Each structure stands twice: as C-alpha cells, then as structure tokens.
Amino acid sequence: MADVAAFGAQHRRRLGRFDRRGQRRGLRFGHAQGVAFGPFASRRAIVAVVARAVLAEAARRAVVALSVLSAAIGSIAVALRAIIVAPIVGVAFLAGLVVAATLVTLSPWADSTTWKNSHGALWLGLALEGLKPILPQSLNVHIAT
Question: Quick one: 101 exposed, middle or buried, by C-beta within 10 A (0-12, 13-18, 19+)?
C-alpha cells in the first residue's frame, strides 16, 4: 500500500502543482484547449499560445500562396490546351466541310443555283483543288470543281 501512495505522490509531482483535492491550481481560473490562463499562467503556456498563433498565420499564408500557385498552373494549362486542341478542332472542322463539299459535288445538288452562287462553295472548291494532288486518283475522277 505504501508503494501505491508513493507512486501517486511521485506522479503528482511529475505533472505539476496540485491542491489538496488533486486538481491543478492554474486551471481553476479557466482554460482554453489545455493552456492555463489567469494569474498562474506559465511562460511555457504563453509561448505555446504565441507559437500556435504564428503557426496558424503561416498556414493561412501557405494556403493563400498555394491557391495563387494553383491559379497560375490552371491558366498555363488552359493556354496549352488552347494552343494544342484549338488547331486540331479547327482542322477537323475544315476537314468536315471539305468532306461535305465533296459529297455535294458527287450529288445532284452540285447543279443547283444555290450551290453555284454560294461563297462557301467557291472556297471549298478551292480547298478541294488544293487537296487533289494528295487524294487518291479514284477520288479525283469524281471531284469536279
């Protein structure tokens, strides 16, 4: 029994100052998140509160810096997408128009006055003339521009 009492006294000494009821003296004035405030606030507690405030401010600034960095990386990604994808979409669109013009020239609509008078037919006809050297001979026979 004496060993248990000695261990309890040693344990209380290790944890700090206690009153007769076994409670810490500093905590009776109120505490916030385990740090004692009041007339018995220790230097260690004050340093802990200041260090926590400094770390919180550093974390807030890091989040702001990362959001700025994220926005910069996002704008670079959008610019690269515009540089890479836009020409591909444009070429695909023009290829679709050339295919449509080719199909019109192979159909009876090629003789219509609407097709003959349209500016688009003129430009697509010029595009087909430019593509004739690289198209297969079997397709060149059917393209009349």
Answer: buried
pTM, 2 dp = 0.42
Burial class, 36, CB count within 10 angstroms (exposed 0-12 / middle 13-18 / buried 19+): buried
In the predicted structure, residue 78 carries a pLDDT above the cut 90: yes
Alpha helices in 106-136 (DSSP H): 113-117, 119-131
Q: Are 123 and 115 in contact (CB under 8 A)?
A: no
37 Cβ contact list (under 8 Å, min separation 6)? 29, 30, 31, 45
Q: How far apart are CA 51 and CA 109, in angstroms?
A: 81
pLDDT of residue 104: 86
